[in-house]
């Protein structure tokens, strides 16, 4: 069956003839779509009465989302060459804010790219860095500041790994990929970094191929030193003044008792001056499935539709994936406030939320030698090799490949 790339990734599937079969995604039947359709105009009117308005790119995000997956706004007709069976596939919005369908598609595609073509078969460790509230607001308003702070964070961690391996910055290099997430577990604006670091250092000596040298996992003391160093360096670059908070905290719903015992995961967490660092999740080089799951986690979309519901009083209730230590399991919003939270999650145009560092960066001299795709500097061209255009080398997965990889749906089977 033929397939093209302008589509909406369907999260709904059923079974036909004992096999997983494709069913068209119907976004208009989801609670998220119904809330946006009903209350986005109310948010616009409310802001207009205050003499305010949403940025143009936020308006475009909402308008595109309301057309995403709807057949009346355009579709492809996919036809089987053998039995002539046809399906209609609606166009997708391809936005980066809160669309669950396009976010799931981007998550699957990003994870496949990182797991198959970028990360070598060496140990990885996830470093999660969160920031004080004033810095989060600064990043949202001025994305260039976010890039400068990310550079400070990467240099601090990479220097620590190289020195821990007993090398100088001249003799060793590490690498990482950063996914910048804009949302917290309660759909709040919480810009923070998920950085997948190579859990070691590449050594390049005597014109021999780079050799990977693993380092031990960081202990509590090392994490505390790192987060203190990062907070000091960022503090010298940006003087943070904390003012009055205009927004109100979401209404918390506690349905379980507060956690009294110490959290065992705290040994991998360090905090200083409003900064927080976590480095407790890792995977081995041979754990390819775990590596891809980790890549999907850090590139996941903001909104999990199954955790969204309405209360008997008409409030929007969002269930937390993991309860807070005080027993909070859900947060509740007025519908217009919920839509306003979605608006805050929309990134500005032309702000790259995926960043490559060190030996995994496009222009690093060792990239072609260490990455599975063997693209980049350091790889000599092979005579008589098959020549591909840049578009062919970097082609995204087709719609059929994405469905089969994520949901085990074979769209080519009628």
Short description:
The protein is an alpha+beta fold.
Comma- or semicolon-separated keywords:
six-stranded antiparallel sheet, disordered N terminus, 11 helices, alpha+beta, four-stranded antiparallel sheet, 414 residues
Characterise the protein shown here:
Helices cover 33% and strands 21% of the residues. Strands 12-13-5-8-7-17 form a six-stranded antiparallel β-sheet. It has a four-stranded antiparallel β-sheet with strand order 11-16-15-14. It has a three-stranded antiparallel β-sheet with strand order 6-9-10. Mean pLDDT is 84; it is low at 1-18, 240-247 and 381-385. Strand 14 and strand 15 form a beta hairpin. The protein contains eleven helices and 17 strands. It has helices at 31-49, 56-65, 100-118, 133-141, 143-164, 220-237, 288-298, 335-344, 367-370, 390-393, 399-407; strands at 13-16, 19-22, 75-79, 86-90, 124-130, 172-173, 175-183, 189-198, 200-203, 211-214, 251-254, 269-272, 275-283, 308-310, 316-319, 328-333, 354-358.
SS-based class: alpha+beta
Apparent shape:
globular
Q: How many β strands by DSSP?
A: 17
Relative strand content:
15-25%
Count the helices. How many? 11
Low-pLDDT stretches: 1-18, 240-247, 381-385
Distance between the termini: 8 Å
Strand order of the largest sheet: 12-13-5-8-7-17
Mean pLDDT: 84
Q: What is the rounded Rg? A: 23 Å
Which percent bin holds the helix content?
Answer: 25-40%
């Amino acid at each position: 069956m033929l397939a093209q790339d302008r589509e909406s990734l369907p999260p709904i599937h059923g079974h036909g003839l004992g096999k997983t079969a494709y069913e068209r995604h119907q976004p208009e039947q989801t609670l998220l779509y119904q809330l946006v359709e009903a209350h986005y105009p109310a948010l616009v009117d409310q802001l207009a009465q205050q003499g305010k308005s949403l940025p143009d790119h936020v308006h475009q995000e909402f308008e595109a989302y309301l057309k995403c997956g709807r057949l009346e706004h355009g579709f492809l007709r996919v036809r089987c060459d053998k039995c002539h069976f046809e399906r209609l596939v609606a166009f997708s919005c391809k936005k980066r804010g809160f669309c669950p369908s396009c976010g799931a598609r981007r998550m699957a595609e990003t994870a496949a790219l990182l797991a198959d073509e970028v990360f070598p078969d060496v140990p990885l460790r996830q470093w999660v860095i969160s920031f004080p509230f004033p810095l989060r607001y600064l990043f949202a308003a001025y994305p260039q500041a976010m890039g400068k702070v990310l550079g400070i964070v990467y240099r601090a961690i990479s220097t620590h790994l190289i020195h821990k391996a007993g090398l100088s910055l001249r003799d060793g290099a590490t690498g990482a990929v950063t996914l910048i997430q804009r949302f917290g577990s309660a759909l709040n604006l919480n810009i923070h970094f998920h950085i997948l670091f190579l859990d070691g250092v590449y050594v390049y000596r005597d014109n021999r191929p780079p050799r990977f040298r693993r380092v031990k996992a960081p202990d509590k003391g090392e994490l505390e030193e790192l987060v203190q160093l990062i907070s000091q360096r960022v503090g010298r670059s940006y003087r943070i003044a904390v003012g009055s908070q205009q927004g109100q905290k979401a209404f918390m719903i506690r349905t379980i008792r507060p956690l009294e015992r110490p959290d065992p995961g705290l040994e991998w967490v360090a905090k200083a001056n409003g900064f927080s660092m976590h480095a407790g999740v890792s995977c081995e080089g041979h754990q390819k499935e775990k590596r891809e799951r980790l890549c999907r986690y850090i590139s996941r979309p903001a909104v999990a539709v199954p955790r969204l519901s309405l209360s008997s009083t008409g409030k929007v209730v969002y269930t937390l994936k993991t309860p807070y230590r005080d027993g909070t399991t859900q947060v509740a919003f007025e519908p217009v406030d919920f839509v306003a939270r979605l608006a805050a999650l929309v990134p500005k145009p032309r702000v790259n939320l995926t960043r490559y560092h060190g030996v995994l960066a496009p222009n690093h001299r060792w990239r072609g030698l260490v990455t599975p795709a063997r693209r980049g500097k350091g790889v000599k061209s092979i005579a008589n090799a098959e020549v591909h255009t840049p578009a062919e080398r970097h082609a995204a997965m087709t719609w059929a490949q994405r469905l089969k990889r994520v949901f085990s749906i074979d769209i080519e089977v009628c």
